[in-house]
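> run fold Putative hydrolase of the HAD superfamily
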Amino acid sequence: MTRTHPEAADFETIRDWVFDLDNTLYPHHVDLFAQVDRNMTAYVSKLLSLPEDEARVLQKNYYRDHGTTLQGLMINHDIDPNDFLEKAHEIDYSVLEPNPVLGAAIKALPGRKFIFTNGSVPHAEKTAEALGILHHFDDIFDIVAAGFTPKPEADAYAKFLRRSGVDTDHAAMFEDLPRNLREPKTLGMKTVLIVPPNLEYGFAEAFERLGDETAHIDYVTEDLAGFVGSVLDVFGERNMNYR
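> ok
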């Protein structure tokens, strides 16, 4: 059964904390990723000389079938992934606001903290810096480090684990995409799905939404900072004044 409030038995031995980036470390309503999404559509449109509506359909099909638009383009059109990443992340980060509550809560977690993203390190750094939380993380593992193999592919997680040395029996992963939590659950990690308030996903694809298959999801929360704060209760960290 998927829960909304952390239980002590699930978190008291966790020592590695793994966070997705987009729509996880910042809330869905900020819509930062919408800028990336538009850039990807524009890239596909220009690359293949397609009208924007057709390019968007193809982009979403690649995203659904291959984990990322980039992977689909690499497989089917042999593009330069670094050029794609650079153009996709030419966005305005000023829409993000510092989140000191989240920063303090992440800082107070015992052990190491990682960002594991299908985006790039520069994108992750700019995003986390705008949120005021970059300095709380030990490492960023991006799509380049994964050899351009994206989540939810098992190989992406294997590469992350080899580099980080994370012990999955003592680790938790936070994600906004349900399918990206299947492998972490199989590996023994505690899994936390971040969802928008009242499950108002807007124009999200069906596979991006919380569905009926939840056996691989231990917890669901609309409020990452609040959830991490509740996890800290397990460790008796309220006296650390992270709120």
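The domain at 32-89 is CATH 1.10.150 (DNA polymerase; domain 1).
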